[in-house]
Write the structure tokens for this entry.
Amino acid sequence: MTPVQPLILGEMPSLSKLYVNAAAQAARRRLLGTHDGSVLPAESHEVRGVTVDVGNLTAYQHLIGETASDVLPAGFVHAVAFPLAMSVMNRDDFPLPLLGMIHLRNVVEHRQPLLFTDTLVIAAHVENLRGHRSGTQVDLVAEVRRTPAGEITWRGVSTYLAKGVFLPGIDKPTVAPARPEFTAPDPTALWQLGVDTGRAYAAVSGDFNPIHLSVLSAKALGMRRSIAHGMYLAARALADVGAVRGDSFTWEVDFEAPVFLPCRVALDITTVQEAAGAWERSDFVAWNPRSGRRHFSGSVAAL
């Protein structure tokens, strides 16, 4: 359900400040006791008059392999909206801890092309608090318009898991959803990801989460090595699908296993065509070519 009242912010929040505040919030909760509520904040957060830096856009396109263009890639729109979405999860009345949340899934509707010259209205809210066998999950929704009352041009739903956090009144599923067996096919691409991949994506997205930046900062948060940003991997797969996807499409990705840096990632893209031969959908899957373990899978389909 969409919140009934927005909180209008004067500018896009700073991700670095949000992470600092989240660390302080986590410390307060450890000291005073965990948040015992099971109700999500009703307010959405909204920023109007958002513009895009063309230099940053160009650097993003180069990093993930998108063709240089005036059109904003769907993953770039996610990156632009991400700080506002994170600000909702950074609220004191948000019942889950922001730090340590695990990114499970993304569903994006890229309904119309957006240009770097467009002035954007971005809104974000949280919904669908529900149980998970390993904790509690929630959907973080971001929507982009050209005017406050205009139609939605881009909508993204990101599902996050607070592992080990079980809230009162939230039922825990007893059976894990079945995942289909995976046998690695012949890859259509091999990515060589260096140890600096996380820092490179942070520079164009603004997401300087410590688990992505270095071995030391990742170990401080319980990871054995730094890991690649999920949206970097998903956006790079979308770039590999290419221009066949057209101007309007849906884009889904499920994350299964982290990509520890440095590493190689194998990718396979399978195209599905309509009876008339037109493109209908491209399915993709990425895995570790050494172990055969699947990292993520998804699809891009005509909208």
